[in-house]
Specification:
Blueprint (H helix, E strand, L loop, with lengths): L5 E9 L2 H12 L7 E10 L4 E10 L5 E6 L14 E8 L2 H10 L4 E5 L9 E5 L5 E6 L3 H7 L7
Parallel strand pairs: 1-4, 5-8
Antiparallel strand pairs: 1-5, 2-3, 2-6, 3-4, 6-7, 7-8
Length: 155
């Protein structure tokens, strides 16, 4: 199995998005796209429970992108003492099929986007036996993300 869309980002969980942006800008000279705050983000977890959580994130403007995700205690997005590198993100040209293929290769779904009962929608996290988390992102979202998420905000 190979994802035809390719690697495009690495997700990092941080205690505060704006503080992390300033740190990585100073350290690495990174420019950031806008911070996206979602008050009600619909997901399904690996046990099949439907949840609605808040979410706050941003992406760097240059590829491969860094994604900063603000920590949300009690969710999959938590900081830990080992590493806050959270996941490796790939574009998927066939999200439902890739989602099923990952699950069939001992890489179960951890969470995924949903629209009512429809899953996966937009993305799915899968975790392999080594503990590496992969995010499959629907390639249909790429133009929208390129236009709004990967660009420096207008002043």
């Amino acid at each position: 199995m190979a994802l035809s869309g390719g690697l495009y980002h690495v997700g990092i969980v941080v205690p505060d998005v704006e503080t992390a942006q300033a740190h990585f800008t100073e350290l690495l000279g990174i420019e950031w796209g806008p911070v996206l705050v979602t008050e009600a983000f619909d997901i399904r977890d690996g046990e099949g429970s439907d949840l609605t959580l808040p979410n706050k994130l941003c992406y760097s403007t240059a590829a491969p992108h860094l994604e900063l995700i603000e920590e949300l205690p009690g969710s999959v997005w938590v900081c830990n003492e080992h590493s806050n590198l959270h996941h490796v993100g790939y574009w998927s040209d066939a999200l439902p099929a890739d989602h099923e293929a990952f699950a069939a290769t001992q890489c179960p779904m951890e969470i995924c986007g949903r629209n009512g009962a429809q899953v996966p929608v937009n993305f799915a996290y899968h975790r392999d036996p080594l503990g590496v988390r992969f995010e499959l992102v629907d390639a249909a979202m790429k133009p929208l993300m390129e236009e709004f998420m990967f660009r420096t905000p207008l002043a």
